[in-house]
């Protein structure tokens, strides 16, 4: 692989949305197929779940990223975000790191 091809971002997309494709092309990114080496994958939630499924054994390379976390809904839904913050707070309290103390020190 040449230095030029290593510096060019190669992308995949599950969607044929003009706004996404135009943005990638304006950046000089090059479309590729799933069988090719790729750097960025604009994937559907279903694809991300498939990629990170334990049974597939697929691992991203250091130069590969996706547009979703495997559990992105845990971060984007307010009810689940609150649940996770409460769980994190309890874990800190068990370790003796009280959040209130950290806030009061500021």
TrEMBL record:
Signal peptide stretch: none
Q: Name any Gene Ontology BP term.
A: microtubule cytoskeleton organization
Family the entry assigns: Belongs to the tubulin polyglutamylase family.
> What is this organism's lineage?
Eukaryota, Metazoa, Cnidaria, Anthozoa, Octocorallia
- InterPro entries according to UniProt: TTL/TTLL_fam (IPR004344)
- Major localization class: cytoplasm
Cross-referenced PROSITE patterns, in alphabetical order? TTL
Q: Name one GO cellular component term.
A: ciliary basal body
Which domain of life, per UniProt? Eukaryota
Organism encoding this protein: Paramuricea clavata (Red gorgonian)
Extract the GO molecular function terms from the UniProt entry: ATP binding; tubulin binding; tubulin-glutamic acid ligase activity
Pfam families to which the protein is assigned, alphabetical: TTL
Q: What is this protein called?
A: Probable tubulin polyglutamylase TTLL1
Q: Which UniProt key words apply to this protein? A: ATP-binding, Cell projection, Cilium, Cytoplasm, Cytoskeleton, Ligase, Microtubule, Nucleotide-binding
Its annotated compartments are: Cytoplasm, Cytoskeleton, Cilium basal body
């Amino acid at each position: 692989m040449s230095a030029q091809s290593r510096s060019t971002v190669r992308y995949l997309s599950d969607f044929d949305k003009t706004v996404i494709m135009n943005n990638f092309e304006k950046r000089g990114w090059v479309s590729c197929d799933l069988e090719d080496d790729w750097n960025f994958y604009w994937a559907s939630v279903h694809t991300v779940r498939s990629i990170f499924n334990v049974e597939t054994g697929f691992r991203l390379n250091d130069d590969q990223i996706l547009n979703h976390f495997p559990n992105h809904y845990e971060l984007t839904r307010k009810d689940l975000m609150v649940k996770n913050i409460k769980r994190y707070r309890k874990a800190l309290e068990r370790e003796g790191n009280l959040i209130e103390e950290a806030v009061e020190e500021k």
